[in-house]
Structures are given as structure tokens and as C-alpha cells.
Write a structure and sequence with these properties.
It holds the Pfam family DUF423. By secondary structure, this protein is mainly α. The protein contains 4 helices and no strands. The radius of gyration is 15 Å and the shape is elongated.
Length: 124
Amino acid sequence: MEKIVLNIATLYGALGIIFGAFGAHALKKVFSEELLKSFETGVKYQMYHALVLLVLGFQLSFTETIEKSAAWCLILGTFLFSFSIYGLCLSSAKGKKLRFLGPITPLGGLLLVMGWILLGISFL
């Protein structure tokens, strides 16, 4: 499990840098200020959780179910939250907003919150 968490952390980190640069340069000309802020929110949350997963990958043994569950909630939550924001922003800029992604963002946020709560419980 440690290797999975560390590999996903580094993937999220690398993609966060790529998406951040893409947003700051290429999308700046295409996106409205509001869309750019939303896109940046996705990048920030992705980077925050990439760093958290990196630390957890080195610090936790993942022998307890609660540790594994926390990690999976953070991994899936980051993917659903950030990538749904990217999809919403990109589709909105093209005039064809993918509305089905709207409910996915809060679901990702809920998984992130659950991951943090489970992580806190595992420390008790």
C-alpha cells in the first residue's frame, strides 16, 4: 500500500505542476477570471493532497484498515474533486458545460473530508 500511495502522490504532484502551468499560461487567454479561479482551486487541492499523501506514504504502515481507508478516501476524493473541476472549467470555456460533473465535485470533497476524519481517528 505504501508504494501505491507514494506513486499516486508523485503522479498528483507532477500533474499539479503541469496543470498549474497550463492554467497560468495557455488557459489564461481562454478562461474568464472566474473559470481561472475555479481551475486554480482544483490545482491547489490536488497539490495539497499530493503532499499529504507523500507524507502518509512515508509515515504510515497501512496495517490498519482505518489507515488504508483514509488513504483511499484522499486518493479518490482528490481525483473526483480536482478532475471534475478541470472538466467543468474546460467544457464551460468551450460553451458545452458537462453538467454531469457538477455533483461529482462535492462527492470528491466529501471523500476528502472523510479521509481527514479517518486519519484523525487513526491517530487517537
